[in-house]
Amino acid sequence: MKKLVAILGAGESGVGAAILAQKKGYKVFVSDLGKIKEKYKNVLSNYTIDFEEEKHSVDKILCAELVVKSPGIPETAPLIVQLKEKGIPVISEIEFGGRYTSAKTICITGSNGKTTTTLLTYHILKNAGLKVGLAGNVGKSFAWQVADEEHEVYVIELSSFQLDRMYEFKADVSVIMNITPDHLDRYGYDMQNYIDSKFRILQNQTSNDYFIYCEDDEVIKNELRKREIKPVQIPFGLGMAAEPGAGVHENRIIINFNQNQFSMSILDLSLQGKHNTYNSMAAGIASMVFEIRNEQLRESMADFKGVEHRLERFLKVHGIEFVNDSKATNVNSTWYALESVHKPIIWIAGGVDKGNDYSMLQGLVTNKVKAIVCLGKNNAKLHEAFGDSVANIVDATSMEEAVKAAYYLARNGDTVLLSPACASFDLFENYEDRGNQFKEQVRNL
Fold first, then answer.
1. Does residue 295 share a domain with residue 155?
2. For residues 298 and 264, is the Cβ–Cβ distance under 8 A?
3. 316: annotated binding-site residue?
């Protein structure tokens, strides 16, 4: 009798886990409470994998030996609570994929910058000729790649939700970019729960592994004082470079690793701005662990194209620049965005508020923002936070409305910045959908 694996959620990660489970001889059942996208339904049908949509057949799922859960399903969901009570193990797709590969892994987490750092690291390793896979929150499902196209090394972006359901998985190189309040609604509004979740990236690492972290981040520094860290620690920051470590000296980034020093002018980096200096240093260290030569590293850091929906300067209309930063789903990301724009800003913000504290934006908003367009079903918190400091605050309930309002409020030389500081699920499928709609409406002006 084949063992049953139930997979909750039929997006990229769920379908990938289903394919791997079937390949490994399990009986597979995929269940999604929402509608399954056509392309994923076709894949499941082609593999003759049993699935259902818009419901959970609880009795069937409770017969599984193992459940692989989509990171989007909260721990408080009734079905997850029932599985816990029955003692049925619930794991993430990354944990499941990790059981069937001996490839090396570079795992990157953080509240901000993790996608850029992940894509840059992947770009460097790929250009250097390594057989490398891109997985986690970006790229193709990790489990799917393990099933279909094994690589030597995987660069994996991990959210706290993915880490929460990882137990035996081990990163060869772990990276924490920063930790700022985010997703607190999923962590009982307790910052320590969120920090603990991020630090799970270190679990199972040994003294033969590496831990790369930002030493300018107070939360990380405080946490390191409380914990015993087994892997080799490699800090990066804007001060002098440690040994091993990365830093900045006379406008050059310096990386020291294994008797090798890498140096490059900040002005030659394809990614500009302070936050991107951090991203470049973290990616650079991770690549040097894999013995990428200095010339190759320099070349890849200079020609990297950046990330769609992250401070994407994308079009000028009548002298007004439109910047798509839809990926900014928390306050800290938006802080970087506001900080990096040096012209008067019409700021499009709002969405599903995850317990945001807007006070850290107050100074930047007062000095740089001339109008705010609130794009969400409930904009009260934005009005409350900035009503006294910005004269023009208007509401919009669709992207078309928001872009038109911003365009009318802007003048030649201004910047319209979509940087929501919130999740997108009230009006959009996800942040990509929100960013794509923004670009489409700007093109329509």
1. yes
2. yes
3. no
Same domain, yes or no: 289 and 324: no
Yes or no: say if 337 and 418 are a contact pair by the CB < 8 Å rule. Answer: no
116 labelled as ligand-binding?
yes
The pLDDT of residue 92: 95
Question: Would the annotation count 319 as a binding residue?
Answer: no
154 neighbors 132 (Cβ within 8 angstroms):
yes
d(CA 240, CA 234): 13
Q: Which amino acid is at 33?
A: L
Residue 355 marked as a ligand binder: no
Query: Is the pLDDT at 300 greater than 80, yes or no?
Result: yes
Residue 333 is predicted with a pLDDT of: 87
305 carries a ligand binding annotation: no
Number of domains in the chain: 3
- The verdict on 54 and 137 lying in the same domain is no
Dist. CA 288–CA 166, nearest whole Å = 26
Same domain, 369 and 234: no
Q: Which domain holds residue 67?
A: 4-91
For residue range 313-348, what is the model confidence (pLDDT) as tens digits? Answer: 888 999 999 999 999 988 988 998 998 888 999 999
Of 74, 91, 108, the one marking the end of a domain is 91
117 is in an annotated binding site: no
CATH number at 11 reads: 3.40.50.720
pTM of the complete model: 0.78
Question: Which of the four pLDDT bands, split at 50, 70 and 90, describes residue 200?
Answer: very high
Does the annotation flag 206 for ligand binding? no
